[in-house]
Amino acid sequence: MRQSIAFPRFIVLTGNYGSGKTELALNLAFRFTADGKRTTLVDLDIVNPYFRSAEKKAELEAAGVTTFSPTFALSTVDIPALPAEIQSVFELPSDHVIFDVGGDDTGAAALGRYAPQFQAHRAETLSLLVINCMRPLTEREEDILDLAGRIGARGRLGIDLLVNNTNLADRTEPEMVEAGEKMVLACAEKMGIQRVITVGEKTILEQCRLQTPWMEIERRMVPEWME
Q: Which residues contact 25 (CB under 8 A, 6 or more apart)?
């Protein structure tokens, strides 16, 4: 069932490499600002030099999205630093602030730096774990549960919602998405999480028999060699 999902002021997206969390972050940012919402996107990825939301900074800002990214992001510096200005997003008059957090527990360490701020705004914060069951390290339930535990501990923020984003880009089949949903639902039950959604390209989702609410997203981080 397709459903319009209500998002709070602060949205935290975590997930392993290739989970699609940056795709979801970008889609939400463009969607919110198109709806007239004051939107801020914070790139907290200090680990992965590829597929950062900072790559779309010019496009985001042209659309009206305020952006923050690690110092030296997209440069040759190995370890980007988090600018002090990021802390100001908790006080900015934004309708939505999206945090795109780096993969696994190492990346979640950046999130942990802002634990006091998130705790102060916990009632208006939604923490999501994005899962692609076709990617290494999240192909089995035990791997997903291990990843969720490590991210939650290092990021010092509990997970509120699981996102099934199972896909193989242009080779995605409806059966893959359905199998991913089944696995993510099983993980949610074991984690005591009540909320699960599925995201993906509309043409695929409309062919699926899903138990969870779904939301279409566009692929915005396609590398040149895939175009």
A: 13, 41, 53, 98, 100
**Global confidence as pTM:** 0.91
Q: What residues contact 132, with CB distance under 8 A and at least 6 apart? A: 15, 16, 18, 19, 20, 138, 165, 166, 167, 180
How confident is the model over 102-128, as pLDDT tens digits? 877 888 988 999 999 999 999 999 999
Q: Where are the domains of the chain?
A: 10-222
Say which CATH class 10-222 falls into: alpha beta
Question: Using CA atoms in the order 198, 227, 203, 39, what is the torsion angle rounded to 10 degrees?
Answer: 50
Q: If DSSP codes are grouped into helix, strand and coil, which group holds residue 154?
A: helix
| 56, 98 contact by CB (below 8 A) | no
